């Protein structure tokens, strides 16, 4: 018969063993990586999240992105965008998601003196960027289409209903991916995720830090040097959103490069000195709207918008290959290229 002492020793060893197993399972679960890659808003999206709830949290985040896509897609007949564009000037009630995006679009249009203007959609369409049926429009066609381009004519009444002028058409392509990233990150956090990386077609948002507690390293592409990086941003709980002339474009019969970011004042692809602009701030929606606006505005005006707003940072790659970055990124942007720090 075993003595009381040896029974106690065995029980003690078993208890310690169970506790160690529990700790190992907890640590493994906390560091466990889940990843989902899917196609939405005409782009490849990827969410990587860590922790025991990560798998179900990613499913919920993906569903939220689909919901936003349905609300804002230009072509979907039931979408808010479609109803605004076919309202014939009548009042349209839209979802809170759409209202949020619309409101931010108007704010950034005001900040950038119309460099961002969601009513430029008919011009974007005419160039073929929505269909892939590219072509250089006649000057008269552009002049005629520009008559209905003016974000100042969008009205949101006190009940949150939207009123546009007859013939006006909007598109949230310049900023809705940013909003989708914010909402997906929110869902991940609500589901207990403390560490995640969301890449919605170049719109990057990070939740917390990496599981080891260090910042995420986000590469900034160098469009002038295939496959190479212009630098790296070290960030946590932030978004880094890039707009550039190098991803959606066509070459005209005249050999010119025509890209998809249109200057709403001219109706032509923006003649910017940037090849890309990456905006860094906490809100993906704001970063997405600004990245398009700053690209159109060009370096000097972008720096002025940054000084006035004082609530975001940016990295720009200029056509001459140099890099510019704002003061607030001094401690978290690393580059080996010739770089100028923009100061207040
Ligand atoms: P950004 O710089 O963020 O935005 C550029 C886009 O904004 C342009 O492509 C144009 O659409 C618009 N734009 C251009 N100039 C301006 C300006 N000055 N002010 C305001 N807006 C401007 N693409 C498809 O081909 N098929 C689809 O079915 C489709 N569905 C989509 C559904 C949703 C909900 C969203 C958000 C996007 C969808 N897209 C689709 C992609 C979209 O049309 C753009 O190509 C994409 O959002 C460009 O994003 P970006 O980050 O490359 O550029
Ligand atoms: Mg944008």
Write the layout of secondary structure elements.
Elements: H1 4-30, E1 33-40, E2 43-50, H2 54-72, H3 80-85, H4 96-111, H5 121-126, H6 139-146, E3 155-156, E4 162-163, H7 176-190, E5 196-200, E6 203-207, E7 216-221, E8 229-235, E9 239-244, E10 249-251, E11 257-259, E12 274-281, H8 284-297, H9 299-309, E13 313-318, E14 323-326, E15 333-334, E16 339-342
Parallel strand pairs: 14-16
Antiparallel strand pairs: 1-2, 2-5, 3-4, 5-6, 6-9, 7-8, 8-15, 9-12, 10-11, 12-13, 13-14
This protein binds flavin-adenine dinucleotide (FAD) and magnesium ion.
Residues 41-42, 69, 72-73, 75, 116-118, 120, 124, 129-130, 171-174, 176-177, 202, 243, 247-248, 260-262, 264, 288, 291-292, 296 line the site of flavin-adenine dinucleotide.
Give the mean pLDDT.
92
Question: How many alpha or pi helices?
Answer: 9
Largest beta-sheet details? 9 strands, mixed
How large a portion of the residues is in β-strands, by DSSP E? 15-25%
What letter string, H or E per element, gives the SSE order?
HEEHHHHHEEHEEEEEEEEHHEEEE
Strand order of the largest sheet: 1-2-5-6-9-12-13-14-16
Give the end-to-end Cα distance, rounded to a whole number of Å: 83 Å
Radius of gyration: 24 Å
Descriptive account of the structure:
- With 344 residues, the chain is α+β, with helices and mostly antiparallel strands.
- Strands 1-2-5-6-9-12-13-14-16 form a 9-stranded mixed β-sheet. Strands 7-8-15 form a 3-stranded antiparallel β-sheet, with no helix packed on it. A two-stranded antiparallel sheet has the order 3-4.
- Strand 13 and strand 14 form a beta hairpin.
- Helix 2 runs antiparallel to helix 7.
- It is globular, with a radius of gyration of 24 Å.
- The chain starts with a helix and ends with a strand.
- About 5% of the residues have low confidence.
- The site of flavin-adenine dinucleotide has 31 residues, from helix 2, helix 7 and helix 8.
